[in-house]
């Protein structure tokens, strides 16, 4: 079957020149090239990478996108990535053009707008091609066959559909196969294990189903296997990480337990099994080389292995096991993971104190301990995490006061301590937290008069369901970018300040169930305002369109009634006059 590919004339001209260069003497080629480039610039001038003033026309091997062998000036590579290439005609065939360059080893046309059905099919006869990159285009259709000389094949970020063909395993020299972000369906061919030189297999974000074939575990050269965002079922294959450095099977439907030796392989750097249906406990043994471990959003149970994190995992930077069914206490041994930058233990059933040893992890940027059963006070040592950006300890049973040391977290953007049993005031030093965008303190037992607040809050300020008192603080007027303000269910008194009506970014103002008095000011119609439960508030008279319509209707009725009355009077006058005239006529006749 003959397949044609639509291709822009400028690209055709460029490739034609290159073919001529491969078979002609250099001076003649240079002359032809000059003319061709002028045509290219005239017909494809929106391509900023081709500028005649920046090209040395006496040296074709120096042109943008053309690479040559330095020993013989033969073309070995066409790098046309992000050249704004698009298909406008089906009059030209890439097969005779590209494959005519017998010395070509690499073709990169990624990040363009090529939409041909299957252009790689036309390249199946390119005898020396080793690297082919068609990623980030608009290709559709099935995966075609290729020349067996290929070592790297990247068709990612297109619209290819159908199954992964068994013929793909005939590319015995492949080291990289990237088919991610397409619309492929079906299962992974079991024959994939025949690709004995494969180092990277990337199948992410497709519609692949079935079980992960066991032969993948036998490819002793495989270092990266990514098959996340598919619909794979079944268990995680035993021994799948034997040779791997990187494994990502997240966002699938895998079941069963995590194999006991899965995390212990010596070269393992990253494992992501999050968002599956895995059960059982976290394996005790973890590789010393582990950098990122994600097991969140499964159904794992049991406790965190207290000894395996620590000296055994010195390189760990990312530990995410949230949204499981883990129990027990947070192991203090986590302090030995000196490189930890993210710790997510949220949405579990952990209990006990928050270890003060967490304050030793000075590289932490994100700490999420929310939705557990943690008790005790917030350790002062948390304030030593100088580069912390997000701290979430909400939905626990923490008590005591908010430690003023938290104001030392000058890079903090989100602070969420809502739904606990915290008492006392908001520390005055919170006013110095200039980068804080969100402060959630609702549903605690905090109280007192608010003296100072962060001055750059933008997302939300939630102080609801506490015992705050006094007037609504004037310091709120500085929060001109705030979107949500919740002061409900407290003991605020006095009037609602007019400056709240001038905070243009507000979308919600919740003031219900306080002790507020006076007249409610007029807010912008796009702001959702809640003031119920303040029995001494006065509301302005309604000015809604419905009231105006009623007034207009009443006026109309009055006009009609007046008009009807006038007409009736006129009719009565006419009748009386007629009666008088008739009587006079009657007398004259008699």
TrEMBL record:
Q: Which residues cross the membrane?
A: 554-582
Q: How does it sit in the membrane?
A: Single-pass membrane protein
**Which keywords annotate this record?**
ATP-binding, Glycoprotein, Kinase, Leucine-rich repeat, Membrane, Nucleotide-binding, Repeat, Serine/threonine-protein kinase, Signal, Transferase, Transmembrane, Transmembrane helix
Name the domain of life.
Eukaryota
Where is it found, in Gene Ontology cellular component terms? Answer: plasma membrane
Specify the protein name.
Answer: non-specific serine/threonine protein kinase
Keyword hit for Protein transport: no
Does the entry feature the keyword Transport, yes or no? no
Write one Gene Ontology MF term: protein serine/threonine kinase activity
Q: Where in the cell is it found?
A: Membrane
Q: What is its EC number?
A: 2.7.11.1
Main localization is membrane
Secretion signal span: 1-24
Which GO BP annotation is one of this protein's?
response to other organism
Per UniProt, residues of the Leucine-rich repeat-containing N-terminal plant-type domain are 43-69
